Model the fold of this input.
Amino acid sequence: MGDDTWAGLADQFADGAYASVKGRVRTYVLHQQLLEHLPAPPAPVLDVGGGAGHQSFPLAQAGYDVTLLDPSQAMLDKAQQRLQGLPAEAQRRVTLLQADGENADEAVEGRRFAAVLCHGVLGYLEQPELSVDQLCRCAAAGGVVSIMTGNAKAMAVRPALERRWDDALAAFDTRTEVGVLGVPGRADTVEELSELLVSRGVEPLRWYGVWLFVDWLEFSGAELDPGDSQQVAATAAVELEASRRDPYRQLSRVFHLVGRKGPS
Done:
């Protein structure tokens, strides 16, 4: 996706989607899943396609040294605005870089990271191989590679919940859809993405769902109040548990795959 596309979506994405209950659940669940695999801070973390920093800024606050890379200046402007709201100590741990994920290694000048994140990016790419190659290359030996993307095995969920029955029937045999932001996207399978990692020297460790019930509620028309902190916390706790268990994780429209790079 180019800068022009995100320039028109930055506000909706950063201030709308992530401020929703679904957005908050995503941030919390992914953060807890990451902490199961990350080394102790201040290990260096690279967030490729990191947008406004919703996933990596909590890591900076936890003591990690974060480099956020994104091709969109509009998103980086959002990240800079949000960065000002962090404690000064956390701000000093964050570096913002403008670059495409397919050129991540060059953008970071060959630096290697204890963890490389790529969340919600591959679905906007027709061919994910080049970006996955860069993610694996930027990870240090023993480093973590964390990818979140659409689940190709659950494509019929959204149109069915929205009662678009013809679309739902067709979705059983497709991998593409127009997402909630109005942008075309595609999905992957855990197995295929795992193969890409293995072929690049990264061993898959575990995969998770990301959200399930909150996703179903939203698409079925239920209104969830992001201002009800007690309800949000309870929702997030249930989603985290579902993300780790079968069959629930298999039904999530999005999955999170974590791998570890072997020795050089």
Remarks:
- The longest strand covers residues 139-150.
- Strands lie at 44-48, 65-70, 94-98, 113-119, 139-150, 176-178, 184-186, 202-209, 254-261.
